[in-house]
Amino acid sequence: MIDSHAHLNDPDFDADLDQVITRAKAAGVTGIINIGYDLSSSRRAVELAEEYDWMYAVVGVHPHYAQDVTPETMAELEEIAKAPQVVAIGETGLDYYYDNSPREAQKRVFNQHLALAGKLGLPVVVHSRDATQDTFEIIKANPGIRYLMHCYSQSLESAKSYLDLGCYISFAGPVTFKNAHKLRQAAASVPLDRLLFETDCPYLAPEPLRGKRNEPAFVKYVAEKLAELHGVPVDELIAAVTANTKAFFRI
Ligand code: NI
To answer: 138 C-alpha vs ligand 1 centroid, how far in Å?
Structure first.
């Protein structure tokens, strides 16, 4: 069972990383993919992957910080991304919910990340919030790259559109939330060979731990919910998702 999106590279985790890792292993977690949101967290993700051979790094600058990205930022990111522990570029994409950076800057930086991924032959982990149409159009305009829609929060219809483009789709804690009926319909519609799961920890702890600080051990609750939605035993769901995760990230 691989947590395909964690932020153990977040300073919040420094205090008790050993305990977090012990609990993850006890819960059956066999791999953790830590993802950056700026240059320093991307470097930290690589450091963790150097330290633990069952961890991997994804490096990028989150759309929240797009307005700060200069050509020098992208050059530095490219150097970081050349480390052998780096398995994808991200998280990148568009966030029109917070609009922390102007939308034009977000689109420019998203495209720059896709160019880097194409250059290095890496897949892309996409963050998309309240920006479905623009996200879809940018992905459609950049074929030949593997895409993972992380912490999916869009509609069933949009999931079909992303699947048609060849994207993989990952679900996090929100799929377990009590009122998330539409999200569960979307999750049930994603075929077992395109489905991933993640924690996005320390955020978005799943039920029954909603509101707590999230960590990789809790990914089992997401796995259990997805198994229930697909009507398959949880072991079967985990085996399918693990195979997808390895195929997507080539690990
Ligand atoms: Ni994240």
So the answer is: 20
